[in-house]
From TrEMBL:
Keywords: Lipoprotein. The lineage of its organism: Bacteria, Bacillati, Actinomycetota, Actinomycetes, Propionibacteriales. InterPro entries: LolA/LolB/LppX, OM_lipoprot_carrier_LolA-like, Sporulation_related. This is Outer membrane lipoprotein-sorting protein. It comes from Kribbella jejuensis. It comes from the Bacteria.
Amino acid sequence: MGVAQRSKRWAVPVAAVAVVAGVGTLGPVMADASPKLPTISAQDLLAKVQTAKVDGLSGTVSSSADLGLPAIPGLGDRGNSQLTEMLSGQHTARVAFATPDKARVSVLDNQAERVWTTDGSSAWAYDSSKREATKLTLPAHKNAKPEKAEPRSYDPQAVAKQFLDSIDPTTNVAVSGTEKVAGRDAYKLRLVPKTDKTTVGSVTVAIDSKTWVPLDVTVMPRSGDKPAVEVGFTSVSFDVPSASTFTFTPPKGVKVTDQKVPANNGQKQIPKQVVPKQVVPNRVLPRKPVGSGAEKPTVIGQGWDSVVMIRNAQTGGLTGNGPLAQLLAKAPTVQGSWGKGKLITSKMVSALITDDGRVFAGLVTPDTLQAAAAKAPR
């Protein structure tokens, strides 16, 4: 299959039901029996996934992550809770979407609920723990979709797309069997990087045998036998949800902030406080640059060994006695033609924080990360 075909936008609106690269073991998702399905080649399976189209779906998604990062005392407090979520733990979300522009995600954690929902004309972001809600009035545009308003870390389709779009000659692709996911028969498509520069050992995508929609994504590290990332449906229906699913009425006593999203050539500009942080394949970064003075992220390299660089990142919080400062104090100091900085590594993630305010991160080996830093523009 050609690169042009692989990079073609999916007909399934994967961004509509936002999900992360969430990650770990989803015991309830898998059943023991392997269903008997007609033989299909990897090329034909990829073609069906890329042309898959459903008018709507709803279900429950379970995600878990174990990236092998050390524990950081105090990191779960208030503003750091999203970072804790994206790097570890298990989470549950209820998701729904209906074409062309209706979507809802409800994340349930620690007896609290966070909701992102849109009916196409307005969007809501609600956090029950803070008793706060933001209402966005979306500009009228026939091609405008509030894609950035929902967290992709709870969408198996969005997570799968990140990997499938990266397939190139450096990847071995094969149909590795069948399985049951959320009670549905699915093919297993396995991606194995040929390069040893990445920390990713393999990625398995479970693809529904009737709708050809990805139902589950499992990321295995190069070392160890436990998943580093898994996100998948525990239950799913392909019936179109009712319009009322996407409406939202804030509970009594909730503080509501009204905002209007200006039109920008048909592209929605969602305020940054509504957009959660995420982990995406081959990069670890927030949806917005770090710090008010940070530049847009730059991607160095291609495919499995790509690295993201953020320049002018605010690193003032890395000094003093804060939890991140404590972590960096234990991290080794490294230097090269790129300069000097601190290196943080785990079984999946490598991050380099340089003295001149640049941050490099990726699902790559430490040597690959430093090689990318040496090639990066100043």
